[in-house]
Design a protein that fits this description.
Layout (H helix, E strand, L loop, with lengths): L24 E2 L17 H5 L2 H7 L2 E2 L6 H10 L14 H5 L1 H12 L26 E10 L12 H18 L6 E4 L5 H10 L9 H6 L10 E4 L5 E5 L5 E8 L6 H19 L8 E2 L3 E2 L11 E8 L9 H5 L9 E2 L4 E8 L5 H23 L15 H6 L11 H5 L2 H7 L10 H10 L14 H4 L1 H11 L28 E10 L14 H14 L5 E5 H7 L4 H4 L13 E5 L4 E5 L5 E7 L4 H20 L8 E2 L3 E2 L11 E7 L6 H8 L4 E5 L5 E6 L6 H21 L2 E2 L3 E2 L16 H5 L2 H7 L10 H9 L20 H4 L1 H11 L28 E10 L12 H16 L3 E5 L5 H9 L10 H5 L11 E5 L4 E5 L5 E7 L4 H21 L6 E2 L3 E2 L11 E8 L9 H7 L2 E7 L2 E6 L7 H23 L32 H6 L2 H7 L10 H4 L1 H5 L14 H4 L1 H11 L26 E10 L12 H18 L2 E5 L27 E5 L3 E5 L5 E6 ...
Antiparallel strand pairs: 1-2, 3-7, 3-10, 4-5, 5-6, 6-7, 8-9, 10-12, 11-12, 13-17, 13-20, 14-15, 15-16, 16-17, 18-19, 20-22, 21-22, 23-24, 25-29, 25-32, 26-27, 27-28, 28-29, 30-31, 32-34, 33-34, 35-39, 35-42, 36-37, 37-38, 38-39, 40-41, 42-44, 43-44
Helix pairs in contact: 6-9, 9-11, 41-42
Length: 1441
Amino acid sequence: MGCGGSKATVAVKQTIQSSPQPSIRFVDFTDLQDGYPDIEESSFLATVLPRSLYVKLEQLATPQGNSLDTIIQVEVDHPTPNGHGILFPEVNSIGLFSDFVKSFSSKVYSLEEIKIATNLDAGRLSAAKFLKEKHFVSCFVSTHRSVAQFAMATTSSRGERRYLFDALAHALTISQSDYQGRTILFEEMDAKEKKEFLNCSCQLGPPDSPQCIAAGLAREWPEARGAWHGTYGTFTAHINTQEHLHLMHMFAVAQGHTLHSAFGDYLESVSELGLALQYHNLSFAHHSIFGHLNSSPYHLGADLSVELSLQFSTLSQHTLYKDIVKSPNLFPTADLSSDGSFTVSYDHHFGLSEVEFLNEVLQRAELLAEMESLYAEMDNIYSVLPADVKGARGKALANYPTFPDKGTTLARLLDQNTYLRLSPLATKHGCSLDQALEYGRQNPTDRFWFSLHDVDTLEVFGEVLLPVVKEAYKDASSPPPLSGLGPTHLNGARTLDEDLISYCYIKVQRNMAALPLTAHTRYDPVQINCTVSAVLAELKGIEFERMTLKYFCDNYRTHPLVKCNCISSSSGCGQVEVWLAKDLDLAIYTNTEEHVSLVFSHQSSDMLQVYQNLCFYYPKIETQFNSDSNSKFAFHPQFGFLSSLPKRFGLLMSCGVLISQTCCKMDALQMCFNPINVSVCSLSTGDLLLCSNTIFVDTEHTTVQRLVDAALRLSELEYLGGVVEGCGPLVEYHPNLPDLSAENTLLAEHLSPVMYSTLINKCTSKGYTLDMAIQVGVDEECSATPSSHPGIVAGDEECYDTFRELFHLVISECHGLPQGGAMEPNKNQLSPISPSFTDPAGLKQVKLKLHFNISSFAFPPSCTRAERNHLEQVVSAILKELPGVYHSLQNLPTELRNRLKNGGFLAMELAYPQYVSTNIMREWPTGRGVWLHKDGSVAAFVNGEDHIALTSVNQDGRLTAAYCSLLNSFSEIKSGIVSSGHALACHSLYGMLTTSPSNCGTGLHVECVLSLPSLSSHPLLGNLARTRQLSIVNVDQDLVTIATQQSCGVDSPDILSRLSTSINYLHQVEQHLAKGYCVHSSTFDIPLHSTSTDSSDDYPDVSLLPLPLSLSLTQERFNLLKCCQTSRGFTLEDVLAPGVTDPAHPVGVVACEAECYSVFGSLYTQVLYNMYPGVAWQPKYSKDLVSLQKMSSQFSCLAALSFEVRRNLASFPFPSSVSRVERTEVELILKSALSSTSLGRYVEGGSDSDGEHPLIKPSWCGLLKDWPNRRGVYVMHDNMSGYINLEDHLLLSITAKSSDIATEYKKMNDFLKSLEVNIQSEGHQFAFLPEYGYLTSCPSNAGSGVSVRLKLHLPRLTKHPQLLQLLKSVCLKMDKESEAVNDMTGEASSTLSVIHLPGYGTPIDQSLWQLTTALCQLSEIEQSIQVSKKSKWTPIPLPMF
């Protein structure tokens, strides 16, 4: 079709009658208040819809019930900067709310009067004289149309949408026949068709912005949505997407078009489509004032979008070409390219008609064509130049920058001529040199003096910008990108102060190379959000939850992002979105300083875990972003990752820790840390943020390590103080801070200067202060007390809450509870003991003591004389009502005093110095008294260390009887206290409150006297007691007095139950010592805080377990171990996993890490005893392999020999439980150590090009995670290979070159010594315990860790029926390889493969001596075997070791 072409106009089938004017229906809102939406005054909606206009229109509604609220609802819910959420649901609503439409249009288009005269007559296009085909590059024209008879696309029903699709598809087919197109539903498109559509039109996926989803555009997507596509690709129409119809015309010079013909074809196509639509009695929606009507107010009027590219190759050589093209009278918004072409876009709505507007564009292009014609003929074009272009040089130099320092690199390179030459240039996103230099004009002291608006800025203006960057970083090497292959350890990270640091994070920021940067005027935050969302949706292994910034800040107030001030509700450009990873401390947000920010964090001081997460997960995320050119990270090979500011080039990474409390001065800290590139800032919450930003020469490891070092330094500074030049003292400690450096109490361990400064000004309602409470720990007399002494007392019950920070830490350590952890409320109960409880055997004497105080009275350290006397009167009155006798301590008869002392009732410990310091002994013995039960079993001491101390003694060792007597007396006294109008001093967490924190909880302590003749003099007695939370009170020859330590966090029956278990344990050790066995602390490893029960629901069926495990895992041992775990959290369930999942497993247990041998040692030991019966208790191993002396070296039956050595690194979990990050680090460490020991090559994944050295899969599935990643073999000379990360960290295989066992053993021994030295130089060591030797994943391999494989040539013996019995008798077993060969051939081979495993408890020298002896005997037996003529074998006498 040409301009005003001759194609016959389609006949109109039926004339569409004009629709009647809509009737107005008023809604009665008289009973309601003003419904003006809750929006910000500065928002776009508030600007176009003031309250007065809303009140005027709010009661109007269309016949279909659509009101003004319906139109603005999406914008209210999802505000946008330009009001794209304002949508009209139907045609009638535009006319009804015309005042609102006019207000919107005047704001958007700056029009005082809205008018439009539609004209699609292509014959009225003006002719072109100079504009030729060579000037035309391409043209894209689009428009939107809605059908008047149906609801808009946002509210149309399924039926309407289906009918519209058929009608519009038919109209397009008959009206656009010249384009030979076809209609395709989106849901029916194949991959080829989707690619074809994507190359020439918009995206085919559902609208995913919050506004589009809320508007309903994505409902039932993609049903009844599709496109009509011309065969030649010049015409495309989308149906039922954002509007009913979206028409797009694409013209190019390759298709024989000129600009004139392209405009003409467009006008004819739209006109004929409107006529064709009348076949269905339909017409396009149109209004006399607002022109073409659509759901979006941005699609009203002419709704004509034009993007055209023109080229004037001759004129572009003129020095003023840029000024000519961008003249206000021509194309001021054009984007120029280096080849002389330019692109310009227009969105036309009101004022001129379609034809008038296109004529204006043609006339401007015609003027440029005329200038080129004159310039080509060497004529003067000055006469036709726009007036503003004349004198353009002076105008251009008006923006020339003024450099404060003329000696800088940029000032030297960018002279006026260079500036005029580069000024017309622009990047593909339209960034000019002036825009790049605008940052320097605003920040004249910046050393770079420019900013990047897109990645191409460095390339387009590289002539002057690149030397500036190179000069700044001339001494730095190129920074590597982040990688998970670097070191994953951080020196000192595990020792960061948990009390000082509450949050930590690592933030990585990135920009996408294909999109404008944040400083660019064309920066589109919505496009950034859509791109990031699409990338993260494809990321495997991590699931994200997407949310707005406001939702995140409102609902995740304690997230490290918020607490560390990384992001706030005012961050970014208003389009910030956040993605939170599920099951991972990772947050990703957009549109702040850079496109994308990735933050790995943790709500603790565990920076090591955060850093390991970064090393493992970041490479995956980066790979996903870089897999698509639209989202690829902006990276320069010389300058690293690019930012809008060149001073941030490099890794674009920062990390920080939140300091919750410190005594250090802010200005002093800044002076301390600024030299090491660590900044300190104070947050509004009063916390400090310690932050380390990458500099150009940094790697990710050095950045994080620098922060860790600074945090450790800060922790030291709080205690060491010091003076900073210019700032004075670094730390402002309270002047009364005591010197506890020489004390060994728990107070000295836990009272930090910060805590003292925080608590010193607090006091209880009775006036008891912190200094009073800690005086007992400050006095020099206490320096000789045991280190377990608290060093602090409570003056009244309020102390436990007033000074809770200190008391909680002391209580936790006194009673063996997790440091600073939460305690279970209401746990400390005094209750009757279970009827099934039986007294432990062997007790000689039992003494139980119970401390408690009465509420509302000050405790003895702060009790006044009057209070003490009053309290004695109250308590004595109660005690006198009980069966027994009460005496004041002043009037205590001598006979009764001696009786109480001899019976162990009268406390003599009040003479200890610490009680003098606490004022407990003031006015002694006034106000004190003693009560003795009539049967002599229980006594009460009043106003001693606590208000009341009950003591129950049983000289026969009957624990149950003593406890019942104590409990009965306590119940009677408690009832009397309540009856007198008082109550016990109790706390929901700490139970009964006592003067000393060591007595709180139940208040119960038990002392027992045991007869332990052998153990009483054993050096391990103290260690064995401490591991059971017992203390040794006294040792008198064979008699040992022990006492319980824990009374808080546990009920009294549990205290007695654990005591009984511990006593039985000590008696068991005593029995083994009496038999002459060697005993170690892990021999009978009964864990702390384990309670023995009669049954357990989770006790496995031992009949299904491997034999060694089934014989070892008794019900009692299971109950004792099931609550235990290692420091890394491995439990009994992890240890038993092989036996539970694989009944054929040879052992049934596995070691997850080295610590398992200490925590679960009793189980491992018993399993090994069942596998190797007769082994002495707890053999001792040495790290040094012994030298073999005088050993037979030649054996006629030995055909081949190899050694296998197993080792594990002590600082990592073993392979069954190691993480991917840890497995990587183990591989790097062992590769380095092996390469330092011997030359060789590493084959990752095993099996090199020759098919040798394959990795043999372990039989247990628990060792196959991520197989065979990060596993391999290091192949060395001398037939040595090191297999990494199989069953153990290292399996060293050494194939002997001769049958000389002693010589080959020496070679292996020398190699292992060198290897261990290299391992230690890396800062690691092999896992080793004297009781078990070298520790392995399978306990049966522990010990020396050495096994020997042999190939024996025994042609007669291999056929003998007693072969297996014979091998077992000499400690050999058939290799699986030999068994398989025999099974396939059906007959015995003359060569036999066997394995010699040193049994548990057998030293390597003794084991190899057994092996050589066995080989000698096998050789003799082979020669002595005779076969009778009847083929009957002669029986062999079996040797025995």
